[in-house]
Amino acid sequence: MIIHHEDGDFPSWFELNSDGSGQFVGQFGSARPIQTASCADGVLTFSLPRQYEPRQDDMEFRGCMEGEVMRGTTTHHDGSGMRWSANPSPELPYRELSWGSAASLIKGDLVNWRPRSPGMSFNWSIQDGMLINSEAGSDLVLQEAHGDMRLVAEYKYPAGSNSGIYLRGRYEFQIVDDFGKEPSWGSSGAIYGFLVPTENAIYAAGEWNRVEIELVGRWVTVDLNGVRIIDRREIPGITGGALDSNEATPGAMFLQGDHGPVTFRRVDVSMPL
Question: What's this model's pTM, rounded to 2 decimal places?
């Protein structure tokens, strides 16, 4: 789903079931339940309460099929009208893969990365061979796009911080200071908004963590600090804040920098053989 706004398009996602239940991902935030939905005379309507959007009214969507694409209208938080278009989610089945040798994405400089938001402060740097975000500012986007991949990252964060790794720029592996808390869709190790880890395996602030992630299609397996916390589960859709919603294509991974500091001493990627 793409919502078209005069200041630029942004990706979204929604899912509706035959019983009228469903969920929605907006420009930012998590997947949230659709409150009401109906279809009459070929027109789909659905609505849901705001989450982080700066508005007081519900978000309402209307659309109908035009060939293979659904097109419709909604409103911006300022009351202005917006158009949207949505394609069916592609089938991305799991496949058994073998992985090649790992390549480090941390170089001597940031030549293989770019700021996501040039208008925001840029606080990323390479220091002593580590990739460091010193304070909240722009996200950091990899110049290269990946499809199926195996990622190994080692990272630490200070007390109270929040970050994440957006796989293909679409699915967020959550990094947050919540040591000792119960796992949830927003906890450490979650695929934010969708997949709850079996346990919270994060170490306390200031300690190094190691995550191994295999992403095949939309199927993900996550080992955090030697514990398998997500075992070959399908990610339903994109996370709020994604770069795009073109799930069938390779995408550029990015590291979340707009929520708080984080340090990576390893970011390695392996590709299928």
Answer: 0.95
